[in-house]
Amino acid sequence: MTVYYDNRWITSCSTLKYSDVTPNRPRVEIGNEQPNQLYTLIMIDPDAPTPDQPSHRELVTWIVTNIPSGSSFASSDGMEVVPYNVVNPRGGFHRQVMLLYRQSSIITQIITVQPQTNFSSSGFAATHNLGNPVGVAYFNVRR
């Protein structure tokens, strides 16, 4: 999995300003090592509302399921379950974590993701039989 904002390749530990990550979704490229495979992408902020007191951990900021392998998407491929919405950090740096899961089959029913705070990516993965992440990307966002 490779992540780009505009044409900027995002490496782990990159730091971006909030204005760099909104309003446009990132472009996420998924390799084609396993043709006909489907994936789920979950993006979370584990530092909400503040890194010192992350009482909303995990804040889910984007979920897309049924993404075909070989995709380069910003959500046109796959089914957007939670619309992209990076929250403006109140202060300090907020980590943004993208988790990529390989699906065993197409996901047709999604348990409603409400509220978006105190989300459990591992719980969502268990509910939908996704197993462990096969790809991870993370970066920091600041005001």
Quick gist of this model?
This protein has 2 helices and 10 strands; from the N terminus they run βββαββββββαβ. It is mainly beta and 143 residues long.
Summarize the structure in words.
The chain has 143 residues and is mainly beta. The protein has two helices and ten strands. It has helices at 18-21, 121-127, and strands spanning 2-5, 8-10, 14-17, 27-29, 38-45, 59-68, 72-73, 79-82, 93-102, 135-142. The strands form two sheets. It has a six-stranded mixed β-sheet with strand order 3-10-9-5-6-8. The chain has a four-stranded antiparallel β-sheet with strand order 2-1-4-7, with no helix packed on it. Strand 1 (2-5) and strand 2 form a beta hairpin. The longest helix is centred in the last third of the chain and has 7 residues, at 121-127. The radius of gyration is 14 Å and the shape is globular.
Distance between the termini: 26 Å
Count the DSSP helices: 2
Strand tally, please?
Answer: 10
- Computed Rg: 14 Å
How much beta, percentage-wise? 35-45%
- Poorly predicted regions are none
Question: Mean pLDDT across all residues, rounded?
Answer: 86
